[in-house]
Write a structure and sequence with these properties.
Length: about 130
């Protein structure tokens, strides 16, 4: 088998090793579902990633754009995983703006201090049924 640096690494293995997904099968499912784009085209799980490739990953509501700076087939520590890619400045800016938007939304609709007790639950049910 050729060294990982020259032949590249399967995209699902790389996403798992870079800690974007907890399980490799989740990474493969995300790639199959069209949530991962490699160099502007939709990728398949067996597609090989090389250093310098541009990846676009859609996770939940977040669109992450990054450039591959390292290859790994095995999952390592979080610090090693962070060295495998570099996120683009536009992606960081979008992610921080979305986090700020979520923070403001949470502040505008505060949660109650505690759960309703039995009497309050009955009042809520009675109010909703009217």
């Amino acid at each position: 088998m050729p060294p990982a640096d020259t032949a590249g690494v399967r995209i699902d293995k790389w996403l798992w090793a870079a800690r974007f997904y907890k399980i490799r099968s989740m990474a493969a499912d995300a790639v199959k579902g069209g949530h991962v784009w490699l160099n502007g085209t939709r990728a398949k799980p067996a597609k090989h990633v090389q250093i310098g490739d541009a990846l676009s990953i859609q996770k939940d509501q977040i669109q992450i754009e990054l450039v591959v700076t390292g290859l790994a087939e095995k999952r390592g520590s979080a610090t090693v995983a962070q060295g495998l890619y570099e996120e683009t400045p536009q992606s960081i800016e979008r992610r921080l703006a979305l986090a700020e938007q979520h923070r403001l939304h949470a502040a505008s609709s505060p949660a109650p201090d505690k759960r309703p007790d039995k009497r309050n639950r009955r009042q809520i049910i009675q109010f909703k049924s009217k």
